[in-house]
Amino acid sequence: MKFPKPKTLQDIATILNCDFVGNANFPVLGMNEIHVVQPGDIVFVDHPKYYQKALESAATIVLINKKIACPEGKALLISEEPFNDFNKLTNHFNPFVQARAVIADSAIIGKNTVVQPNVFVGNNVKIGDDCLIHSNVVIYDNTVIGNGVTIHAGTVLGADAFYFKNRPEKFDKLLSGGNVVIEDNVEIGALCTIDKGVTASTTIGEGTKIDNQVHVGHDTVIGKRCLIAAQVAIAGCVLIEDFVTLWGQVGITSGVTIGEKAIVSGQSGVSKSLPGHKSYFGSPADEFRVKYKELASIRLIPDIIEKLDNL
Question: Does 297 fall in a domain?
Answer without folding.
Answer: no
